[in-house]
Specification:
single chain, about 425 residues, alpha/beta, Transcription Regulator spoIIAA, Rossmann fold, 9 helices, 19 strands, about 25% strand
């Protein structure tokens, strides 16, 4: 199999951007007469409205400005944040005749916190969770995680970045947190057309230590991916541990060691190997293992090369986890990203012992559940047990590998899914027994 056409590393790659953020309309107008309106040709009840659906906008609109959206016959649909550069031109905040006011922000934040505290009772099992999940909490373009006494925010839109510091401070007050951090993703900066340095509170620590189900993890804020840690896999990490007692476990694309460490600590696995291409998170994975006195073999390697080496040596594992970074970030990457998923899974399936467990993930919202399932079935048809000593491990000559899908899961409940935004159900985890 050839090397992937593009990197699958989680390390971000910045691209040129075209707009700064010096003009920041922080305060929303209270009088609807002060709000400019855009006319939409084909209204849809979606939180994110694309530029091609709008008629010519009025002159003088500021990037990130609050705008109204109405139909050609003058009916007001709602209000949102406008960006003339982004294909996603308006991110809706409210629907109906009433514009958002300052009270709206606290209302949305309090409702999000109530879900985590009162309904999910996450405080009983962890001090690290997703507090606000973009469209799932009616705040498109804005996510916030809490790690101990730090609120870590990632803004995916210009309009939300302009308001993110204020929202981070409000979350600190509501949660009793001491510190906050606001940053953007390089990919969203490219899509939204602006450049922004991270914003942070005074004396923000370089890292904090959190726990989930009693296992400790260090979250490092400098250079970390997303907001610093993957809270969305919390329940899946615990679920995986249930299959690991006395078993050999391989965690591919292990990042800071979440699955590998829980397999050893909660699952009492006999031996665990974690493979990661990026050096910085791998060093943190080793620190996390030491925090929990867990002996794990961490390998700094390209996962494709590592899998081919193990196949060449005839090595297999009782449990294999494959949790790659986001391989499809936009529609232009669907074909290549789907191929990468296929190649990853075809090789990983061959590393599972007969009767062993394979858990595979995709965090690409643009790859549907149906397409992911088709991909996995196709990969199984081309997979099989390794051939020790074979010079050609890329095109197996044996019968297709049989698999039994036993469970499908996704992100934890602190990552709620918006009924009007199907792509917010981004994380897919498929659990299968390989025969």
């Amino acid at each position: 199999m050839p090397h992937p056409k593009r990197p699958y590393s989680r390390t971000p790659h910045r691209r040129p951007v075209v707009m700064d953020t010096t003009q920041r309309p922080h305060v929303e107008p209270l009088d609807v007469a002060q709000i400019p309106f855009l006319e939409i040709g084909a209204p849809l009840p979606q939180p994110n409205l694309y530029r091609k659906r709008f008629r010519q906008p009025p002159n003088g609109l500021l990037p990130g400005q609050l705008v109204g959206v109405r139909t050609p016959d003058g009916k007001t649909l709602g209000f949102g944040l406008y960006n003339p550069v982004s294909e996603m031109a308006v991110r809706m905040l409210t629907w109906g005749e009433s514009p958002p006011d300052e009270a709206l922000w606290d209302e949305r934040l309090r409702a999000a916190i109530d879900l985590r505290d009162t309904t999910l009772k996450l405080g009983d099992v962890t001090d690290a969770c997703r507090l606000v999940h973009a469209e799932g909490d009616l705040l498109s373009g804005f996510v916030a995680d809490q790690y101990a006494d730090v609120i870590s925010v990632e803004a995916f839109s210009l309009g939300m970045f302009q308001r993110a510091e204020s929202l981070a401070r409000r979350l600190c007050e509501l949660r009793g947190a001491k510190h906050w951090l606001v940053r953007t993703s390089p990919h969203s900066e490219t899509q939204e057309g602006y450049d922004a340095e991270p914003l942070r509170s005074e004396s923000l620590p370089n890292s904090v230590t959190v726990q989930e189900f009693g296992t400790r993890f260090k979250v490092r804020f400098e250079g970390g991916h997303k907001t610093g840690f993957f809270c969305d896999q919390r329940d899946n990490r615990k679920r995986l541990a249930e299959f690991c007692e006395g078993k050999s476990v391989l965690d591919l694309c292990c990042y800071t060691g979440g699955f590998a460490i829980q397999a050893k600590v909660l699952g009492k696995a006999a031996d665990v190997t974690g493979v990661e291409i990026d050096e910085q998170p791998l060093e943190l994975a080793k620190e996390n293992a030491n925090l929990n006195q867990a002996r794990i073999n961490f390998v700094n390697a390209d996962a494709f090369a590592y899998m081919r080496d193990m196949l060449q040596n005839g090595r297999q594992y009782d449990v294999v986890v494959l949790d790659p970074p986001k391989l499809i970030r936009n529609r232009e990457e669907i074909e290549d990203g789907t191929r990468l998923h296929f190649d990853f899974n075809r090789l990983a399936m061959r590393l599972v012992k007969p009767g062993g467990l394979f858990m595979t993930c995709s965090c690409a919202g643009l790859l549907s559940h149906e397409e992911f399932n088709k991909l996995l079935c196709s990969a199984a048809r081309q997979a099989g047990p390794p051939e020790p000593g074979s010079e050609n491990t890329e095109r197996p000559r044996h019968l297709p590998r049989q698999m039994q899908i036993i469970e499908r899961t996704g992100a934890g409940g602190d990552h709620p899914i918006s009924g009007n935004c199907p792509e917010s159900e981004y994380l897919k985890a498929v659990w299968m027994r390989m025969l």
